[in-house]
Amino acid sequence: MESVGKIKKAIITFLVLNFGLSSIFYFFIGSAGDVNVAGGLYIIFLMYCPAAAAIITSLIFYKSIRDFGWKPGKVKYLAMAYALPIICAIVAYGLFWITTGTFTGKLPPQNMIYFILMGTLTSIIGGVLGEEIGWRGFLVPQMSKITSFSKVAILTGIIWAIWHFPLMIFANYNAGIPLWYSLPMFTVAVIGLSTILAWFRLRSGSIWPSILLHASSNLYVQNLFDPLTMETGVARYFVGETGILFAGCLLVFAYITWKMRDKLPDNRINVNQN
After folding, report:
1. Count of CB atoms within 10 A of residue 259's CB?
2. Helical H runs in the chain?
3. Which residues, in sequence order, are bridge partners of residue 229?
4. Of 15, 60, 177, 249, which one has the greatest count of Cβ atoms within 10 A?
5. Close Cβ partners of 112 (under 8 Å, ≥ 6 residues apart)
6. DSSP for 114-165?
7. How many Cα neighbours within 13 Å face the side chain of 156?
8. Percent of the chain with pLDDT over 90
9. Residue 66: exposed, middle, or buried by beta-carbon count in 10 A (0-12, 13-18, 19+)?
10. Using one digit for the tens of pLDDT, what is the confidence trace for 79-101?
11. Does the CA dihedral 101-106-111-115 come out positive or negative?
């Protein structure tokens, strides 16, 4: 039987490898102060560091990567995961538009079907796949073997948020508002999102709902709802990845999934479910 000690060593190895590999690209991006330096190649490479770390760690400790959840799982989880960020964005941005009159009506120049299909595919290939293989393909299932869902959701959320911090501190990721606001608000939003992603990963047994949810969030928030919102100097405080309204909506869904944690399989080793 797999030991708790082995799982902890695998998790630590993954984190050391991930942050070690990521630091290479933190340096290049931070030196330029721009996440789009080198035509955006460095940020793509960075987003695949969690995948590289997960694959290396799994091969070292388990001689396989078959437990990442490669099968698609049930269609209902794929559909629910993809739709959830859109619902959050409609609620958060809708409230902001109604109260501030900042709706621009500026839709993407592409046909919407093309925008949805190609945008989702580009988001997945352009980095989401790399992140999710690491965070939800490896880290979440491993942590779920040794601790409760609540701790899995919060701890993976904090780690995931910290992984983004160098891009916010030394480059222009989510630029436009002061760090004293953006860092804690981004962390809250990421913990909420992490809770939802972890629930879908464990409930479905598949990494693909998490991939679709992450890709959907990036696509619609950054490329549809942000352009539909007039920047008045305060918009980023309320909507987007550092906005209090969007974070609040994510926390509502996070609470709903947390309340349904009893529906998750008990993967823990010698630890009682709680």
Report:
1. 9
2. 4-32, 41-47, 49-62, 75-100, 112-123, 129-132, 140-144, 149-169, 179-204, 208-220, 235-238, 244-259
3. 103
4. 249
5. none
6. HHHHHHHHHHIIIIIHHHHIIIIIIIHHHHHTTS-HHHHHHHHHHHHHHHHH
7. 32
8. 87
9. exposed
10. 999 999 999 999 999 999 999 98
11. negative
Amino acid type, 114: Y
CB 54 within 8 A of CB 132: no
Residue length of the chain? 274
DSSP classification of residue 274: -
Distance from C-alpha of 158 to C-alpha of 202, rounded to nearest angstrom: 19
Contact yes or no for 134/156 (Cβ under 8 A): no
Determine the Cα–Cα distance for residues 251 and 258; give it in Å rounded to an integer: 10
Rounded to whole angstroms, the Cα distance separating 23 from 9 reads 21
Selected residue with higher pLDDT from 253 and 101: 253
Give the burial string for 79-110 (b: 16+ CB within 10 Å, else e): ebbbebbbebbeebbebbbeeeebeeeeeeee
Beta carbons of 56 and 50 less than 8 angstroms apart? no
Residues 6+ apart with CB under 8 A from 107: 224, 227, 228
